[in-house]
Write a structure and sequence with these properties.
By secondary structure, the chain is of the alpha/beta class. The protein has helices spanning about 10-20, 45-60, 70-85, 100-115, 130-135, 155-165, 190-200, 220-230, 260-280, 285-295, 300-330, 335-340, 350-360, 380-390, and strands spanning about 30, 90-100, 120-125, 140-145, 145-150, 155, 170-175, 205-210, 235-240, 250-260, 345, 365, 370-375. Keywords: Aminotransferase, Pyridoxal phosphate, Transferase.
């Protein structure tokens, strides 16, 4: 049987991680993998997470299974974090998932069950794993223009022109904030136009919210998701706790589905639980318990929000410092977009051969499409990166 298997293409980001580790140069810079790092290059455990884990260690009396949908307290806390008071709770079905990726996968599975003929429209570019999972599921997909490579901002006209070809019932995959890989987000006015278009054309939005709190703040980063959830009858939301709680390895995510009324939402809840059973049965619980412990305790939540805000402000400061150094070296404002982007990522706009030169000549590792992780920088590496960018002619 195994003789019929063929080698699968290597994941480009994982391959980049391996190449970086094998590079003996001491001055090398890792801007590839999408993990937050502090100024010392560590991915620290947040204070509130440590405190919540200690509390669980003392109080937890069983490691038995949770429900198929996960702990209800986790769902309630996450729905409140993402949607606040946008909708009545009984219109939102939810299940815990193994990370945001698990939520995305379950969402695509649900779409396939509910409407196998629907086309899923995906931004160009998008997170590569979106496309990989969709291809694996043999889902119908089309891309819509999103990123203007000249202005390094959202190509709103191209996006609207492409979505005009979508048919009622098609699904539009959106990044709720901190677009990966570009870092370019629609303005509030553009989000209004997107929501109006989705509603007018009877399209179903699926929002991937992986970076809430990393852009402009917890509420600001959820504003687009809340706008769309409040405006449309049917909405799918995949959210991750990996980044904003720093619990990457705990694989903590949630899939939410907004129904038009309570009976439809009950059917959605049963469908999501069924999909969990078919895939992994009961979802992981440790990270979910940590998150719900933090979000339901006033002191822990305040400390978590304060540390998350420090992380967010730190990344904004790095963006501004890099943009300023590039302006100084280039004597132009062509890199100002770096300070306008949000989240961990920006697409620099370098050609593949320039990305290769950055790696080979300067020990700077970024993804081939020139997506770079801003959180991989610090005050010492910013001048090094800026000089290398100018040296290779970006």
């Amino acid at each position: 049987m195994f003789e019929h298997l063929t080698d699968q293409p290597a994941d480009k980001i994982l391959a980049l991680m391996s190449a970086y580790k094998a590079d003996p140069r001491e001055a090398k810079i890792d801007l590839g993998v999408g993990v937050y790092k502090d100024a010392q290059g560590r991915t620290p455990i947040m204070r509130a997470v440590k405190a919540a884990e200690a509390r669980l260690l003392e109080s937890q009396e069983t490691k038995s299974y949770t429900a198929l949908a996960g702990d209800p307290a986790f769902a309630d806390a996450m729905i409140d974090l993402v949607l606040a008071d946008t909708l009545p709770r009984d219109r939102v079905a939810a299940v815990a998932t193994p990370g945001g990726t698990g939520a995305v996968r379950q969402a695509f599975e649900m779409i396939g069950m509910a409407s196998p003929e629907a086309t899923i429209w995906v931004s160009d570019p998008t997170w590569p794993n979106h496309l990989s999972i969709l291809k694996h599921l043999d889902a119908k997909t089309r891309s819509y223009r999103y990123f203007d490579s000249e202005s390094r901002s959202v190509d709103m006209a191209g996006m609207m022109e492409d979505l005009a070809e979508a048919k009622p019932g098609d699904v539009v995959l959106l990044h709720g904030c901190c677009h990966n890989p570009t870092g370019a987000n629609p303005t509030p006015e553009q989000w209004d136009e997107i929501a109006a278009t989705l509603k007018a054309r009877h399209l179903v939005p699926m929002i991937d919210l992986a970076y809430q709190g990393f852009g402009d703040g917890l509420d600001a980063d959820a504003a687009a998701t809340r706008l769309i959830a409040g405006a449309l009858d049917e909405v799918i939301i995949a959210a991750s706790c990996s980044k904003n709680f720093g619990i990457y390895r705990e694989r903590t995510g949630i899939l939410m589905a907004v129904g038009r009324d309570v009976p439809q939402t009950r059917t959605l809840q049963g469908t999501l639980a069924y999909l969990n059973r078919q895939n992994y049965s009961f979802p992981p619980d440790h990270g979910a318990r940590v998150v719900s412990t933090i979000l339901t305790d006033e002191a822990l939540r305040a400390d978590w929000q304060a540390e998350l805000e420090e992380v967010r402000i730190g990344m904004l400061r790095l963006r501004e410092a890099l943009a300023a150094e590039l302006k100084r070296l280039s004597n132009s404002d062509r890199f100002d977009f770096l300070a306008q982007h949000r989240g961990m990522f920006s697409r620099l706009g370098a050609a593949p051969e320039q990305v290769a030169r950055l790696r080979d000549d300067h020990g700077i590792y970024m993804v081939g499409d020139s997506r770079m992780n801003i959180a991989g920088l610090n005050d010492r590496s910013i001048p090094v990166l800026a000089k290398a960018i100018i040296d290779v002619g970006v």
